[in-house]
Amino acid sequence: MIRVLVTDGMEKSGIEKLRANGFEVVEQFYEPEELAQKVKEFNVVVVRSATKIRKPIIDAALETKELKLVIRGGVGVDNIDVEYAKEKGIHVTNTPNASSASVAELAIGHMFCLARFLHISNVTMRQGKWNKKHYEGIELAGKTLGLVGFGRISKEVAKRAYALGMKVIYTDIIGAQAGFDEYTYMDLDGVLANSDFISLHIPFFKEQGATIGAAQIAKMKDGVYLVNCARGGVVDEAALIEALDSGKVAAAAVDVFEEEPTKNEKLYTHDKVSVTPHIGASTAEAQERIGEEIVDIIIKHFA
Length: 303
Ligand SMILES: NC(=O)c1ccc[n+]([C@@H]2O[C@H](COP(=O)([O-])OP(=O)(O)OC[C@H]3O[C@@H](n4cnc5c(N)ncnc54)[C@H](O)[C@@H]3O)[C@@H](O)[C@H]2O)c1
What we know:
Layout (H helix, E strand, L loop, with lengths): L2 E4 L5 H9 L3 E4 L4 H7 L5 E4 L7 H8 L6 E4 L9 H6 L3 E4 L5 H17 L1 H9 L17 E5 L3 H12 L3 E5 L12 E2 L2 H7 L2 E4 L13 H5 L5 E5 L8 H10 L2 E6 L10 H4 L4 E3 L8 H18 L2
Parallel strand pairs: 1-2, 1-3, 3-4, 4-5, 6-7, 6-9, 7-8, 9-10, 10-11, 11-12
Helix pairs in contact: 1-12, 2-3, 5-7
Bound molecules: nicotinamide-adenine-dinucleotide.
């Protein structure tokens, strides 16, 4: 019997479907040392972001050669040593499509928060303050949204922003993409200089460092709004705080942090910041789709 270890949780319906298809499923989180022992007994490991599948875990798995497949339920595979696993004949995959709409809706939600002070008025009203005068906002309609990265999530954001009456411009390292004539392609500097709102939808590579640091912020419009629902590290948090304090950035939304859970109190308590604890994909629909995609991957792999 094929044995599947699910370490960071998975939709119940997915677990049931796997069991109905004859797979043995164990749902259990293990700290790294224990995981290095347990991994030897499984053919598949399903993780989210909490479990790290690093070289020592892969090396341990190789002792029995049982492990064939590692699945990251979600998009970013930065918690897995993908190249090393592949080199050793272990297939690594993710579920890249399942959460695009959810992340896009969160990014748009954050834009509304920033434009209408929802994040901070929710705090001050609870403190008994009636700060009506402070909260004259702006409309999203008619503003220019600059998208950095134009992949799956970004396209979903573009669709929604366009429907709200925003002008959409975008940049991507692979260049302009066909079939999106309603949006305007520019290089990164063009997007930085011409956007009222900027939303980031690119991966983070440690060796490249932050795509948005002090130099890039300096190229933005004064009073720009910045949204990061991509990955911590894409934005230099220190540079962002400085820009918020100076007013260069009017307000920012942050779902992902350089360190998670974040200890950057200055950032997450900042009046001009709308914060969420990495919940881009945390919707019932995304979780269900992730579960379905995982089941399909496992069934196909062992068919
Ligand atoms: N907040 C969350 O919970 C959450 C959930 C899912 C995904 N994400 C993150 O969102 C990001 C985007 O995910 P996706 O599914 O749209 O990925 P994707 O691979 O479909 O799209 C990413 C796009 O960015 C482009 N790109 C890469 N580096 C770039 C750069 N430096 N400048 C410009 N373009 C660049 C790529 O060419 C690609 O088109 C990822 O970092 C992913 O980890 C976050």
